[in-house]
Amino acid sequence: MKKIVVYPGSFDPVTYGHIDIIKRALKISDKVVVAVAHNTEKEPLFDVAERVGLLKRALKGIKGVEVDDFACLVVDYVRKKKAHVVIRGLRMISDFEYEFQMALTNRKLAASVETIFMMPSEQYSYLSSKLIKEAASLGADLKGFVPRFVEKKIKEKLGV
Ligand code: ADP
Questions:
Q1: d(Cα 58, Cα 34) in Å, to the nearest integer?
Q2: Which residue puts its alpha carbon closest to atom 12 of ligand 1?
Q3: Structural contact between residues 91 and 122, judged by C-beta atoms closer than 8 angstroms
Q4: Is residue 108, in this structure, part of any structural domain at all?
């Protein structure tokens, strides 16, 4: 049986930190479903279709990855994909509280779904989509943070 894991998130937009986690997740699974969430409280820069498109392009050529979107509970989506594992990235202690709450809530909602946390390479441990957008709005060079085509799209959106 194929081991499928689901990596849910906003991905607004994809960064090298996300890609690092996806590559690590592939080491412990046969297939990683990268799932872009619709129901996020945050005000996104990119709509869901754009975020999916950027992820697909960034992950082109990496075998065993599927990019999808979902509008339901994460645990319901995981079960729909016939998976049992949610992958989340852990950067700093600051991620911990939110991730801990979410993992335990998901466990309460669906005891059969496990959450696995993975740490990125330390060069990405401070990277966030939010900070990248802020830096881009002030004209920063995003080399080393996101692929060039993603940088171009961010700057187009922000009009910088
Ligand atoms: P969310 O809004 O669900 O937190 P994000 O797109 O910000 O969505 O992140 C999705 C997942 O990827 C989260 O588990 C987050 O902690 C993780 N993540 C984000 N950036 C990085 C990074 N630079 N390194 C490792 N994990 C990351």
A1: 12
A2: 89
A3: no
A4: yes
CATH number at residue 74: 3.40.50.620
Whether 142 maps to a domain, the answer reads no
**Where are the strands (E) in the chain, listed by range?**
4-9, 31-37, 65-70, 85-89, 114-118
The residue to mutate among 11, 18, 32, 50, having the most atoms of ligand 1 within 8 angstroms of its beta carbon, is 18
Residues spanned by the domain of 50 = 4-125
Ligand 1: atom nearest CA of 12 is 6
Catalytic residue among 24, 51, 88, 91: 91
pLDDT in tens, 48-85: 999 999 999 999 999 999 999 999 999 999 999 999 99
Residue 53 lies in a domain: yes
Model confidence, pTM: 0.96
